Amino acid sequence: MSKTLIIGASGQVGQLITKTLVETEEDVRALVRDKSKLDDLKDSDLEIVEADLEGDFSQAFDGIDNVIFAAGSGGSTGADKTLLIDLWAAKKAVDYAKEANVKRFIMVSSIGADDPEAIESDIKPYLVAKHMADQYLMASGVPFTIVRPGPLTNDEGQGKITIKRPNSREEMAIPRADVAKSVLFILSKDDLNGKIFELFGGTYDVDNVLV
């Protein structure tokens, strides 16, 4: 059985991914800064590693086959944390994954990371960080899939998405649950390496559109 490392397992999308993998009895390791944030999973067989992404977290990659990078600095932090987490920690994770010869690295990025110059917004530093992290992963030689979801909501997931960018920003929103479901589907497939998907709420089943 392959083993999956989830970086950012205490985040909103990361927790959804972690919980589903635990419920399906997959072999999973959760990397978090504070393990108390996963207290609702403390009675499971989940392996939890505590580490600060601003430091050395290479030990979390021992024996790992797949990596899901779902970490983020958060909307309330400044540009310094955006740089250190969304860019530098992602870069270190790619380096550790390459050294560990992982089979798959799934990066949870963001809509707009393809071309930060096209968006005049307060989140431009975040998009630049995501862009550079994505580019580094693509050039690393590590097998990868990148997902770039639209604005995230806490609406109930429907398992319905589209990968065609809508015309308006309002239509770009997607529930976090559907992002998590998309990532888990990608994890289950062996033929999606090297692909980049934009994700939005839509009308198509995840397993029919992510090909």
UniProtKB/TrEMBL annotation:
Positions of the NAD(P)-binding domain: 8-188
The organism's place on the tree of life at top rank: Bacteria
CDD domains documented for this protein: SDR_a5
Chain coiled-coil ranges: none
InterPro entries: NAD(P)-bd_dom, NAD(P)-bd_dom_sf
Entry-linked PANTHER family: FLAVIN REDUCTASE-RELATED, UPF0659 PROTEIN YMR090W
Listed name of the protein: Uncharacterized conserved protein YbjT, contains NAD(P)-binding and DUF2867 domains
Lineage: Bacteria, Pseudomonadati, Pseudomonadota, Gammaproteobacteria, Oceanospirillales
